[in-house]
Every structure is written in structure tokens, then in C-alpha cells.
């Protein structure tokens, strides 16, 4: 398949009008600029001297330094500007995806074609990946221009056809989907046009030296509304809290603040406003009194804080809780395309981005891929301890028997991170479930003969206890039947069963739709006889 695609790319590349002398600046005044790499290893400020041969020359106290343009993004009025860039495929949207993931994803995509991606940065927020055949020694087979702006721009660019692919850190809205459908773009939520490529946790973080390990939702509300101003008020040192927030027009700001306050946002002005996750990370690294929120991929030297919601359920921002989507500040990262405006190059990249092959690249970029993890459910597990404590809430009646039965069953199984979710009252798997099902089948194909798998259903607490238990079983059975239909004879080595425990063992509070959605799930438990 890769060979055919490379031939297709070679054929079309001849027609591409990539501007000659791409990295030849039009003008640039001698003044201060900032050069930053997307991985945070370079953050240099100095006086712009010259741009030559894809290299910035910057005057610093250490002398004139030469920095490759392929490694950094230039910020500042003195940054050189370049001629307009055209490419085979334009990708527009969220800077969290464009800056944090796309450079490595393009490199991995090129490698899957036995090519090399030469990545340059025409201007701040842009990267151009030129794919060169034969490991970098052949012909150019395609170019991809990634413009990192915001989520809204992704759908605007798809609507006016200035981009083939939109990248976002949120799902498309109904209004955006309807506008694109009316323009002939097709159903934007169909599997061929909406792709979940990774998950990301919005992490609340502090300086690594800060002793505060855990914050409740009420404490966070106090900090980000200005009512709590000293770390001693939350069990820390007697030092003033430096609150770092993101721009109020950013998706990260909307997501975090709506989690804390809903629609009633406080008038509090934080001590610092950061333009993006990377800047927040830099501040947290240097300021011992700072607290801020940023994407999982941008933590670097900062220390993540465990969050405790209003029901007392702890949320730790680790990879397993992100993959199961039980961490309440998790979000999905998407790629979207129109049905009527996607060519062979764009299509092959889209297919690569959701493949198992891309998982390691996504993980390397700091995001959380959709690959499957396995976790023990033994007595030492924090979740098990919380569930054991919850038995007392149900006392000794029928509900207590259900909870005890669940704890007894857990002893025989590990849990996989694959988790299927449903809308209220529905047994229909959501959009991510379709992709996870294929990954689960591929994962189980290599399991030892005799492996036992159980699909375990749970619900929110809306409705009667026994009705919820029966709904949980129905959902587990629906998943099992669909897995069997999709797998055909590929899982003859695995015995599969179902059970359901209804509303017991909530992963989130049932007081909001967000929490109830997290609790409507089917987990996948695998017998401990399978080697980890």
C-alpha cells in the first residue's frame, strides 16, 4: 500500500507549485526576537542579525549563535517574513495539536512511506513538512503545511476550503456540522470524516518543589477566583499563590473554567496570562509559587496535582485514566475532513494518524495514544480501596450484594484501558467505540489460548437500581455481540462473557451530565492467566 501511495504522490507532486526560495526572507529589522522549539528544549532571546541557509543568526551575551529554522519558531516583530507558501495539503486548527503533535506525526508518517520529512517553519505558528522519498535521498513526494491557530479556525478553513484537514481539541458543534453539511461537505461526524487521534488530559500543575499533592474542586475554585491566595490555605507553605491562566479566547481556558465554574465565571484577574501551554509550562518550571493548567503533553518539569471532585473521587492525570476517559479533565483530539475535498495524500495521512503505527509517535510527542494498557485490580489498587469503602453505603441489602459480587469478580481479572461509552438510556456505542473495537480485537488476537474476557457494564444513577443493573448487562451484551460480529473467527482463542453492576462503582460524580457520561460505560476485564 505504501508503494502505491508513493507512486501516487510522485505523480501529483510534479503539479505542485511550491514557491521557490521558500526560506528567503523579504525583510527583517535588527531587533530582539525569541526562538522556541516545540519540545521546550530551546528558548532563546537575542538580537536578530541575519537569516541565511535556513538558519537564524542571533546575537546574545554569549556571542552570535546559529539556530536551524527547522528546529524553532520565531516570535517578535523583528522575525523575518517569507513569501507565501503553497503545499499539497493544508492542515489548520488547534495549536495544542499543531505545535505539540504534528511535527513528530509528520516524521512518523514519512517513515511509514520509507521517506523523510524535512520540516521548516515559514513563520510563527506554521510548519511545512516536505516528504522526500527513499529515506531523504529521492524525490519530493508531497508537502503538508500545518497552521497552528485555534479550534474555531479548523472548521472555518474547512468551510471555505482553504484547508483539507482540520485539527481540534474539541468535537465539532452542531452548528458547525450543519454549516459544513449545507456546503456539501457531508456528515462531519461520520467515521470517514471525524477521527479521534489521541486523548489529552488538562493537568493542573505546580512547580516541582511544591509539597501540595492534592487539591479539591472547591480549593481550585477558590484559587482561580482569587478567594484563596496563599499556599498555606491548602496545606502548603506560607507563600503567595501565583495564578497562571490562558487567554480567555482559547479552548483551554473555556474547557478548564467551565469545569470549575460552569457559565458563572469569576471576575478575578490572574497574576499572569500565558498565550499557550508551552508558555505555561515555562512559567511553572521557573516560578516556585505558580499554579496553572496545561495539556498533558506540556507538563515537562512541572508537577501534576491529583484532583478530588465534589463527591470525594480522586482523579490522577495518568495515561490509564486518560485512555479510559475517567479523568474528568480529559479531552479528545480530532482530525476532520470534508467528504468532497480530500485527495490521496491527505487520505493516507488521515489513515496513518489513527493506525497502531502512529501510537508510538503520538506517545513520544507527549500526548496519550489510543493503544491498550493493562492494569491490575488487586487490593493495592486505589480504585479497589475506594470501592471497598463504598460497600458501607449500600449496607447489607441487595445493593450491597451486587457490590460484594463485583469485588469478588475483580479478583479474577485485570482491566484493559478499552472502555465503551453510551448516551443516556442507549445501548449504542459512541464514536470512539468504533475505533477502540478494532484495536481491542487486534490486541486479543495474540492472547494465549484460553484467555477469558468479560465485558462489564455500569450506568449512572438515574433511575431505579435494578433497572440500571439490567441496562448495564444489556450494554455489555451489545458490545459483546458487536465484537463477535466484527472479529468473525479472529478471536477463537478467547472466551467472552458479560456481566453488569449498574450504578455501583462510579468513576465520576453523577451530579452533572459530564460525570454521568463518564459513568455510562462497559469495561473490559481480562483473566489474570494471560501474561502481562
Automatic annotation (TrEMBL):
InterPro entries with a match to the protein in the record: OmpA-like (IPR006665), OmpA-like_sf (IPR036737), PBP_domain (IPR024370), Phosphate_ABC_transporter (IPR050811)
Start and end residues of each OmpA-like domain: 409-530
Pfam families associated with the record: OmpA, PBP_like_2
Entry keyword annotation includes Methyltransferase: no
Superkingdom: Bacteria
Entry keyword Signal: yes
Listed GO CC annotations: membrane
Residues in the signal sequence: 1-29
Alphabetically ordered keywords of this record: Membrane, Signal
This protein's name: Phosphate ABC transporter substrate-binding/OmpA family protein
Naturally occurring in which organism (per UniProt): Yoonia algicola
Upper classification of the organism: Bacteria, Pseudomonadati, Pseudomonadota, Alphaproteobacteria, Rhodobacterales
Amino acid at each position: 500500500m505504501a508503494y502505491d501511495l508513493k507512486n501516487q504522490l510522485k505523480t501529483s507532486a510534479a503539479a505542485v507549485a511550491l514557491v521557490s526560495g521558500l526560506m528567503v526572507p523579504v525583510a527583517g529589522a535588527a531587533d530582539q526576537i525569541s526562538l522556541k522549539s516545540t519540545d521546550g528544549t530551546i528558548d532563546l532571546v537575542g538580537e536578530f542579525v541575519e537569516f541565511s541557509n535556513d538558519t537564524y543568526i542571533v546575537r546574545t551575551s554569549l556571542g552570535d549563535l546559529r539556530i536551524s529554522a527547522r528546529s524553532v519558531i520565531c516570535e517578535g516583530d523583528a522575525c523575518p517574513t517569507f513569501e507565501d507558501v503553497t503545499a499539497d495539503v493544508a492542515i489548520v486548527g488547534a495549536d495544542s495539536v499543531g505545535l505539540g503533535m504534528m511535527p513528530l506525526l509528520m516524521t512518523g508518517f514519512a517513515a511509514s512511506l520509507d521517506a523523510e520529512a524535512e520540516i521548516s517553519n515559514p513563520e510563527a505558528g506554521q510548519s511545512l513538512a516536505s516528504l522526500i522519498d527513499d529515506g531523504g535521498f529521492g524525490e519530493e513526494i508531497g508537502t503538508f503545511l500545518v497552521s497552528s491557530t485555534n479550534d474555531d479556525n479548523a472548521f472555518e478553513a474547512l468551510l471555505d476550503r482553504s484547508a483539507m484537514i482540520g485539527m481540534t481539541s474539541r468535537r465539532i458543534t452542531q452548528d458547525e456540522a450543519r454549516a459544513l453539511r449545507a456546503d456539501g461537505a457531508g456528515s462531519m461526524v461520520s467515521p470517514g470524516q471525524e477521527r479521534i487521534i489521541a486523548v489529552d488530559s488538562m493537568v493542573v500543575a505546580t512547580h516541582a518543589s511544591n509539597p501540595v499533592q492534592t487539591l479539591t474542586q472547591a480549593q481550585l475554585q477558590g484559587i482561580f477566583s482569587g478567594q484563596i491566595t496563599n499556599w498555606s490555605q491548602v496545606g502548603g507553605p506560607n507563600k503567595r499563590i501565583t495564578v497562571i491562566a490562558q487567554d480567555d479566547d482559547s479552548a483551554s481556558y473555556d474547557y478548564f473554567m467551565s469545569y470549575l465554574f460552569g457559565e458563572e465565571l469569576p471576575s478575578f484577574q490572574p497574576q499572569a496570562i500565558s498565550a499557550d501551554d508551552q508558555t505555561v509550562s515555562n512559567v511553572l518550571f521557573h516560578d516556585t509559587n505558580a499554579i496553572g493548567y496545561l495539556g498533558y503533553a506540556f507538563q515537562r518539569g512541572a508537577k501534576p496535582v491529583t484532583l478530588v471532585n465534589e463527591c470525594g473521587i480522586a482523579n490522577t492525570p495518568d495515561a490509564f485514566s486518560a485512555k479510559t476517559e475517567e479523568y474528568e479533565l480529559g479531552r479528545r483530539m480530532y482530525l476532520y475532513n470534508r467528504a468532497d475535498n480530500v485527495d490521496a495524500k491527505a487520505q493516507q495521512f488521515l489513515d496513518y494518524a489513527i493506525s497502531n503505527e502512529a501510537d508510538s509517535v503520538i506517545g513520544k510527542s507527549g500526548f496519550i495514544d489510543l493503544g491498550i494498557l493493562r492494569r491490575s485490580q488487586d487490593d493495592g489498587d486505589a480504585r479497589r480501596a475506594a470501592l471497598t469503602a463504598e460497600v458501607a453505603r449500600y449496607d447489607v441489602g441487595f445493593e450491597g450484594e451486587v457490590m460484594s459480587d463485583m469485588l469478588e469478580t475483580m479478583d479474577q481479572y485485570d482491566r484493559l484501558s478499552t472502555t465503551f461509552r453510551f448516551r443516556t438510556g442507549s445501548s449504542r456505542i459512541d464514536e470512539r467505540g468504533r475505533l477502540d473495537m478494532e484495536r481491542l480485537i487486534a490486541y486479543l488476537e495474540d492472547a494465549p489460548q484460553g484467555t477469558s474476557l468479560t465485558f462489564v457494564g455500569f450506568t449512572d444513577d438515574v433511575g431505579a437500581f435494578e433497572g440500571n443493573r439490567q441496562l448495564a448487562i444489556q450494554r455489555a451484551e451489545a458490545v459483546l455481540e458487536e465484537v463477535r460480529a466484527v472479529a468473525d473467527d479472529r478471536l477463537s482463542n478467547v472466551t467472552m462473557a458479560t456481566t453488569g453492576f449498574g450504578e455501583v462503582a462510579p468513576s465520576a460524580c453523577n451530579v452533572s451530565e459530564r460525570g454521568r457520561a463518564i459513568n455510562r460505560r462497559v469495561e473490559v476485564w481480562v483473566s489474570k492467566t494471560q501474561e502481562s
